[in-house]
Amino acid sequence: MDIRLECSRGPCEGRSITLKLGRHGIGRELDNALRVAEDDAASAHHAAVLVRTTATVLEDQGSHNGTHLNGVRLCVPTVLGEGDLIRIGVSEWRFMRLAGDAVTVDPEPQPLVLEVTATHEVDEPRLLVLDGPHRGRVLEVKAAEPVVIGRSPRADLVINDTFVSREHATFFRRGDEVAVLDNDSSNGVYVNGERIRMIHLTDGDEVRIGRTHFRFVALGSPLPGLE
Q1: Model confidence pLDDT, tens digit, residues 4-48
Q2: C or N: which end of the chain has fewer Cβ atoms within 10 Å?
Q3: In the chain, what are the domains?
Q4: Which of 13-22, 107-116, 126-135, 181-190 has the weakest average pLDDT?
Q5: Distance CA 2, CA 97 (A)
Q6: Long-range contacts of residues 80-85, Cβ cutoff 8 Å, at least 24 apart
Q7: Cβ contacts of residue 227 below 8 Å, gap of 6+?
Q8: pTM of the entire predicted model
Q9: Are 32 and 120 in contact (CB under 8 A)?
């Protein structure tokens, strides 16, 4: 499925681009598929469009002025619909599909795939989300695969909370141990009620990031259900 972006307003007005399957960057740098050098409000690597056979997904790449979809600033990767209006810098681009019939929307897969339904022993250290919109989800903390939590679309768990920084905290594993690091967040990371810079976690520790609470479940410990 090919898609087209047409600029209807701003310094890029009159320009258009056709994109095929794959990931395509948008920004002022030369390595972007859609270079918008004439738009001074756009970042060097502002946004990206992922074109798939089932859906097209738009994501911000940590731009200074944000990526806006139909007038709303984008916080997480979002599936595009026919006629959607995308603002990059001060230029507005219209999204259109060029080929194929109507598609079934298939949003980007999320890394949180396990819902807690029963108690069972875990084969990887995990973080259980205790409250908020992600309540009941679980994150595995694997060796050599740090888990980042924050507001950025690049985070492994995106939390849309004004008390959460873009890349608020990182959980990483060394052997059987897991530690949490505060990435110089504005509002801190709390473990069992105490603000920390970095600490190794033990089974049952409660971690608070913004207004969301997590419980750490160590390797080999039973994963509790939620009441």
Answers
A1: 999 999 999 999 999 988 889 999 999 999 999 999 999 999 999
A2: C
A3: 2-98 (2.60.200.20), 126-217 (2.60.200.20)
A4: 107-116
A5: 6
A6: 80/3, 80/49, 80/55, 80/56, 85/8
A7: none
A8: 0.49
A9: no
